[in-house]
Amino acid sequence: MIFKTFLKRLFPRSFDEQIYNLTPKELIIRKSSNHGGFKFGLFLLTVIFLFAIFGPVILDVSPYEQDLTKRLLPPVWKEGGTWEYIFGTDGNGRDYFARILYGTRISLTIGFGAACVGMIIGVTLGVCAGYFGGWVDQIVSYLLTCQLALPGLLLAMTIVFLIGPSITVVIFVIGATHWAFFLVVSRSATQKIKNLDYVTAASAIGASKFQIIMKDIIPNTVSQIIVIFTLEVGIAILNEASLSFLGVGIQPPTPSWGLLIAEGKEAIFFQPWLIILPGIALFTLVVSINMLGDGLRDVSDPNNKVSEE
Amino acid sequence: MSKFLTIQNLDISFESNNKNLKTVKNFNLNLNEKESLGIVGESGSGKTLSMLALTRLLPKQAAVSASSIIFQNKNLNELNNKNFYKEISGKKISMIFQEPMTALNPVHTIGKQLLDTYLYHNNESVDKGTKRALEILDAVRLPKYKQRMGQYPHQLSGGQRQRVMIALALINNPSLLIADEPTTALDVTVQKEIIQLISELRETIGMALIFISHDLGVVSQISDNIIVMENGEIVEKGKTSKVLEKPAHPYTQGLLNCLFKLEDEQKKDKIENTPIIRVKEISKSYKLPAKIFKKPEIIYAVKKVSFDVKIGETLAIVGESGSGKSTIAKIINGLINKDEGHIEIKGQKIDNINVSDRAKLIQPVFQDPYSTLNPVHTIGYIISRPLMINENKSEIEVRNEVVKTLNLVGLSKDYYNRFPNQLSGGQRQRVAIARAIILKPQILICDEPTSALDVTIQSQILDLLSDLKAKLKITIILISHDISVVKYFSDRIIVMYNGEIIESGNSKDIISVPKNNYTKKLMSSVFSLKK
Prior knowledge:
The complex is a heterodimer of chains A (309) and B (531).
Chain A: H1 2-10, H2 24-33, H3 36-58, H4 96-132, H5 134-149, H6 152-163, H7 167-176, H8 180-193, H9 197-204, H10 209-246, H11 257-264, H12 273-300
Helix pairs in contact in A: 3-4, 3-12, 4-5, 4-7, 4-8, 4-10, 4-12, 6-7, 8-10, 9-10, 10-11, 10-12, 11-12
Chain B: E1 5-16, E2 19-31, E3 36-40, H1 47-54, E4 62-65, E5 68-71, E6 74-75, H2 81-88, E7 93-96, H3 100-103, H4 110-121, H5 126-139, H6 145-148, H7 158-170, E8 176-180, H8 188-205, E9 208-213, H9 216-222, E10 225-230, E11 233-239, H10 240-245, H11 250-263, E12 275-287, E13 298-310, E14 314-318, H12 325-332, E15 340-345, E16 348-349, H13 355-361, E17 362-365, H14 379-390, H15 395-408, H16 425-437, E18 443-447, H17 455-472, E19 475-480, H18 483-489, E20 492-497, E21 500-506, H19 507-512, H20 517-524
Parallel strand pairs in B: 3-9, 3-10, 7-8, 8-9, 14-19, 14-20, 17-18, 18-19
Antiparallel strand pairs in B: 1-2, 1-4, 1-5, 5-6, 10-11, 12-13, 12-15, 15-16, 20-21
């Protein structure tokens, strides 16, 4: 009791009896600090990001340097492993830890990049189709049908094959084949929102169509789009892995997780860590992103009061 | 004689985030056989919850405890759920819900739904069930009841669906019927028929009735005894006539005052005779999508309507849903385009007024307090937005203006940073009004501004509107189906039916001496307190 009053004196704002007096920013901070999944996902993703950015800088390891005398060394916890190569080495005698570390950068870039490309395409089309309706809606729906009818991986493979693989191309190709979810969700949300009174009120106060879309419609779809976004980040990372696995994604010797798995598949029975380690990395990243996404949805939605108190 | 139904010390609480929310406290009820009891209270007072507890329809999170619930000498506390649903619910105790649109299953025919309900509780043949279903449809006076068995709910109107709901509730001859706001979602004219039907059926079948409503007028017509609830507690109970004549509790007195105030007339200011809006022969129609071998059908929402609105007056447009009154409001507001005719505002044709000028001339206030404010923006932003769009003002000026407007509608500046979901319905409607008046418009179009609110809040909002009208000299167009609100508030009335004006004139004249048949029906459907 005494402790609490002491805290109250120290932080009068955060212990205010009425949560209503908080500004929007303070409210979001308070909500997010009470959301377990959000905190865990954020923590994990931050750790992965820090690793990706600073790992290669601080640790003096190279993912490309070959030492053919030290091929297929097991990781340190296995018999015969050394601390010099924590995760062992691959078939060409390259440091596997360094390769996974550098692979994190590539996976994160491609995951977020491709999801952003997909989001921009999907949300733009979806909001336009939902808000304007009529022939705009029909054209967009036709585009969607075409997109859904094409086998995504095959299409991506063909395009990458024709243009030539590079990280930018892979990002745009994956993004351009993954906007269907964004479109469907934002379209139906827009159709619902555009008939609500606050949109009518906005046009009565003289707001233009562009202002209505930017200020009234999109902010209200954000909580749904965030969920799709995190889902798509995960899918894009996995998609990159499949493309690289099939040989049309990232080209060797660049260390991408998918490529590592592809290269390790020959040794699956004798050196399973070559597949398991990048697999675990992939799993951890996708899980952390999904948890963060769920948390962000709860936190950003002002109608969600659950984690407020 | 033993009591028919007794409930003692009923408590309902909801557990949320380690907080125990008591929504109903110490609820006691005694009901005799064939008695009719009314439960009155505002939304959130626990009147529906306590009845849902009796029928075991509460969500799982709710913790219900009662020292005893005895129904026809049977202790319901001792009955497990399975036996309760088999023996009591739907058979001895039936319930009618508020929303006839969602209470019926849209994928099954009326006949199947009736039959299922009957066969679940009675071990009879389908033939006998069908016979009984037809019998009960006839009893609730569903027109053409023989053909209705094969129809789906969407083929019926709201009033007809509510009749089917009543039929569903009565098919097993229950001894207690619980009606939870059965008429709130219906038009006033239909409302009266349903109320009459329920009270007649109660007498012929000889069942007890618990009637839940927020409308004291309706309850006073139908019930012998009355319970008034506030914040989960019973504040007053007794014979209806006694309670209404000499309300003991201040809350009941407040409720009654609000009603009486609405029945009185307001002092009215003098009105200048120059029209501010002239509406000439406007029409609006919708085309139904064409089918093969069929010409596209055209439905008129508004058909050649003309009227004037004078500076400083309050014009009420009255009619049931679908009569085209909201369409007119939207056309005047420039929110939808008309097909024919023209509208002049202050001598200018509405098509020639640009968006920004129009916004400074006319502003709307909508019905639903929950969808009228964008949930992602703060109150401060919502109210300041008209200024930011239409006027070049510094941030501090805008802020000051918003705080001033907040004070004008009776809210303190603490509300600036709140989100709409932190406000009650009445407060939201105040914010919506603040947003509408911040540009100092000359005309306010209020589309059912109070119909989604509780009675006490309703009169507060109406007071606020008339206050603002005097202070800011606004002309108000009020759209409503509620005659008592119109009577209290308006100078002139236009009555609409099927997109056309069927009667117009001074509000006093129309209310006291309606000429048109439909207007007569509309005026007589108002429930005044019966003493």
